[in-house]
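Reading a protein record of the kind used here takes only a little practice. To see the layout at work, look at the sequence and tokens printed below.
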Amino acid sequence: MSMARSGFLRVTMLCAILAFGVVVLGAYVRLSAAGLGCPDWPGCYGHVLVPDTTQAIANADAGYAQRPVEPARAWKEMLHRYFAGTLAVLILLLTVMAWRRRHEPRQPLVLPALLLLMVVFQALLGMWTVTLLLFPPVVMAHLLGGFTTFALLVLLVLQSGGYLRAGESATAALRWLAAAALLVLVVQIALGGWVSSNYAAIACPDFPTCQGRWWPPMDFAGALSWHGIGPDYQGGILTGQARTAMHVSHRIGALVTLITLLTTSLACLLKGRKRVLKIVGGLMGLLVVAQVLVGISMVHLAMPLPLADLHNAVAALLLAATVALNWAVWARLQPAGMRG
């Protein structure tokens, strides 16, 4: 591997690590009710840093009377923005590097460009999250955008490094199982975002039942109602039965995800013709079991913040493992002149 190519790979790896951190930190901000810690964007009460002097705080409170400065919440929000901004700059650098090396064999071009577009869209979603007062569709889209950015960076690491190409040894059944696992997992992550953005995680305080019943009163129509732009959505505004419908849907999705991913993992372990397929498939299986155990523990321990944030972190790692498995079973060794 040339020096230039190894430099591109190192920056890509750094971006992937940072993107994982942004996903986890974003979940922490959301789960600790700090999403509106700064009522404006991109600054905080008109400042690059959180106001900390008596005069600055007084001026900020006068300008935003409905949201007085709470430094602890504001710093959580701004820290997330600093990390996200740094990631955006690095992805821009990555795109420039890819373009300058576009004539080199097997230099990825599509993924860096796609990542740059994703970062721009994520910035807009971040702004709308604040200005639209945590409007659930925007919050959910912002969460999915963070996961997508991380997944694309993992894919770019695999592509630019030439790792895990095992498509020639994978059966057609294994390929389609891996694709199904990825699809089911993405839907489940979306369901998790639906629950989180509507503050429905505590709708079922027990497990495996919900409110002491296997099928409690639920309002699925209400769960799909967003009530439009305008209201302050912090804390959620939907009825209890609507939130229960969300939570139960997420649990059903978790069961489907567990069955699908474990089936795929078992197929990799039994039918994988290369060791790499067994390793990646086995890792995916371990992570989905860990994710379910964390989710159950969250309910039994009344949703402690560290476990709730861990739930998001494991989801990101599980997505990375599933993306890696799909890359492994679909990617074949390419001729030197081909690029993605």
User: Anything to note?
Assistant: Confidence is low (pLDDT under 50) at residues 335-340. DSSP finds ten helices and no strands in the chain. Residues 240-271 form the longest helix (32 residues). The chain has two domains: 1-163, 166-340.
